[in-house]
Amino acid sequence: MSPVVSFVIPVYKVERYLRRCLDTVLAQTFTDWEAVCVNDGSPDSCLDILREYAGKDSRFVIIDKENGGLSDARNAGLEHCRGEWVVFVDSDDFIHPQTLEIALDIQKRSGAELVSWYKDSLYRTKLILRHFFHLEDLNYRPSSFKKIYDPSKVQYHFTKDVISVASEYSHPHGIANPLKHNYVWRHLIHRQLLEGISFVKGLAFEDFPWWSELLLKNPTTAYTDAKLYFYYFNLHSIDNGSSRAKKVYSWICGLERTYQLYRAKADSHQMECWSAQFKWPVLNSQIARHLIKLRPDSEKTALCREILSSLISEGLLDDAATTREPSALKTAKMIRAFVGK
């Protein structure tokens, strides 16, 4: 019999954190789940740890594959999911014990195809302080992790037009109850929604094109402010370990893929919302402000210039004067200067 929920957990070089992650999956108050753990060719003891957990609990399913990167691992995990619902968890992070219980209760009350929650943003700040003062942090749990909820009383927002409330901004202009950021690991997703959608192999910050593509399906969505995810500030993660040039190039590649997808499939409302709430925030915060810092003679810089030039020719910046994004004109000017147009 298939489980109700499938966790997808990519695993690579996280032997220090893996047990913490798996223990919070084991601690879930809702128990009808499977955890599809994808060992992505990890060279440390991660596979042994996964086998240890799978040997004690058959709900842990191990996929052992050659290294292909985070996107490839998530795609491999999705292929083996049997649950009606899917939840992604990164293996150096952990989740609240009532995550599934709360999400499924919200889903039952709302009838939504997608349920979203938030991470505890203060946890990251506390970790940075603990690093600074050389305090142990692996076993540290913030007070929000220990909070006990009555799931029936957890409030949520509901929408049939998720693209109108979704945004990459932390403080989006003009949206009363925004669903913020691209994070892949904060959703309960009906598995049928994920058909035809895959993570871009080899791309860092793959959340952005993936989330943008999911938004095109316009799922009915319920989202709560409850802090159910705990993102560990890992100095060796993709975000913290990548060079500036690699980061900018990845964002540009993700933008290229997504812009072309929206040009081909989005209606005018979806394109307007995505442009104001995702395209311009990414152009401004992740791309334009970093272009001047790139080495002018590097191969990555040349590739960035080539892709941006092509996208400008396709109309990427044409709505700079009409979009709701107030800094669009300034951002467009910076990008045009970078590519020489």
Attribute tags:
9-stranded mixed β-sheet, single chain, 11 strands, globular
Describe the protein's architecture and organization:
The protein is of the alpha/beta class and 341 residues long. The protein has helices at residues 18-26, 46-56, 70-79, 99-110, 121-132, 143-146, 207-215, 238-241, 244-265, 268-291, 299-313, 328-339, and strands at residues 5-11, 33-40, 60-65, 85-88, 94-95, 114-119, 157-159, 166-167, 179-180, 187-190, 221-230. The strands form two sheets. Strands 1, 2, 3, 4, 5, 6, 7, 10 and 11 form a nine-stranded mixed sheet that branches. The protein has a two-stranded parallel ribbon with strand order 8-9. Helix 11 (299-313) crosses helix 12 (328-339). The longest helix is centred in the C-terminal third of the chain and has 24 residues, at 268-291. 39% of the residues are buried.
Q: What is the secondary structure topology, with strand pairs?
A:
Elements: E1 5-11, H1 18-26, E2 33-40, H2 46-56, E3 60-65, H3 70-79, E4 85-88, E5 94-95, H4 99-110, E6 114-119, H5 121-132, H6 143-146, E7 157-159, E8 166-167, E9 179-180, E10 187-190, H7 207-215, E11 221-230, H8 238-241, H9 244-265, H10 268-291, H11 299-313, H12 328-339
Parallel strand pairs: 1-2, 1-4, 2-3, 6-11, 8-9
Antiparallel strand pairs: 4-10, 5-11, 6-10, 7-11
Helix pairs in contact: 7-9, 9-10, 9-11, 10-12, 11-12
What is the tally of helical segments? 12
What is the arithmetic mean of pLDDT? 95
- The N- to C-terminal Cα distance equals 59 Å
DSSP helix fraction? 40-55%
Q: What coarse outline follows from CA principal-axis ratios?
A: globular
Q: What is the oligomer described by this structure?
A: single chain
Report the portion of residues in β strands: 15-25%
Task: Indicate the low-confidence ranges by residue numbers.
Answer: none
Work out the number of β strands.
11
The assigned structural class equals alpha/beta
Main β-sheet: number of strands, strand sense, barrel status?
A: 9 strands, mixed
Radius of gyration: 20 Å
Order of helices and strands: EHEHEHEEHEHHEEEEHEHHHHH
